[in-house]
Design brief:
single chain, alpha+beta, 22% strand
């Protein structure tokens, strides 16, 4: 009886554990990309991201500095967007996928300035997106509280955010001039005076103000990764009337050289039948009514209409 019970228990144990393998079974290994440090769900989101560079220093209206060190989020569909003023913009996929995306959409770079106003915050050098980096523009709007109101992607890898805050509700809260030190304010005054005295063109005025904003730390020096077309580059350098006359003289010499080549090789060509209005007065060196307005880029009415 005891022997039979022992045999029964032995057979029951073998059935539970299965027969002993004659050789070690082969195990199938599935190799998956390593997500540690990027999408690891056991790490905080801020610890997964690896920014390419440090954010630019604080700049712009001083009353906005209090936003530094804070972050504001918005959930759109399955993504959570987070805006940290003067730091970065990030995106986190809110799913249970093993490789849910978390990435940087831009790091604080510079201000966008339009008509003497801080019109937006640019975040650049985000995560790679095809052949370029992701970037974001944050527009500041008046609101009852600090909140990230809207996020969109108007073009591939370029994001547009709207951040509402009561800090910009005052009509003068985003003006550039009052934020400048006195020495740069005097420079601005001189530029405006030179423009009024027609010593520089509106294009030249824009370049001088751009340099002023760079010195203030509001914008970064423009990158020249791709050279502009030769014609556009020359046109961009014509900042006053003397440079226009010089460029006109160089073009006239080039036309004469090309004309001689055509005649030398017997190639027919047609000459202009009359000299343009601007060409006549540039040759005389005496700008007439309407010419200076055109050179300054003034789109106003030409001629005496009264």
């Amino acid at each position: 009886m005891v022997a039979g019970l022992a045999r029964f228990l032995l057979l029951l144990g073998l059935a539970a554990h299965g027969p002993a393998p004659a050789a070690a079974a082969k195990m199938k290994v599935v190799e998956e990309p390593n997500a540690f440090g990027l999408n690891n769900p056991f790490l905080p989101q801020t610890g997964r991201l690896q920014p390419r560079r440090e954010p630019s220093p604080l700049s712009g209206p001083a009353h906005l500095y209090r936003l530094s060190g804070q972050c504001f989020s918005l959930v759109e569909s399955t993504y959570k967007y987070e805006f940290c003023p003067f730091h970065n913009v990030t995106q986190h996929e809110q799913t249970f996928r093993w490789n849910a995306y978390s990435g940087i959409l831009g790091i604080w770079q510079e201000w966008e300035i339009t008509n003497n106003t801080f019109s937006g915050m640019w975040m650049s050098d985000g995560d790679s997106c095809r052949s370029r980096s992701r970037q974001s523009k944050v527009e500041l709007a008046c609101g009852n509280s600090n909140r990230l109101a809207r996020v969109s992607e108007p073009s591939t890898c370029v994001y547009a955010l709207t951040f509402e805050t009561p800090l910009v509700c005052h009509p003068h809260s985003l003006l550039v001039y009052p934020t400048l030190p006195e020495v740069l304010q005097r420079r601005w005054d001189q530029v405006e005076q030179d423009l009024a005295d027609e010593l520089i063109t509106s294009q030249g005025c824009g370049k001088l103000l751009r340099a002023l904003f760079e010195d203030a730390g509001y914008v970064k020096p423009q990158r020249e990764n791709q050279p502009a077309q030769e014609g556009a580059l020359k046109a961009a350098r014509l900042e006053n009337l003397d440079e226009c006359r010089k460029a006109h003289s160089e073009l006239a010499e080039e036309i004469q050289r090309l004309t001689s080549l055509l005649s030398q090789h017997g190639i027919p060509y047609s000459r202009p039948t009359e000299t343009s209005h601007l060409e006549q007065h540039l040759a005389k060196g005496l700008p007439t009514h309407g010419t200076l307005e055109q050179l300054r880029g003034d789109p106003g009415l030409q001629g005496n209409i009264l």
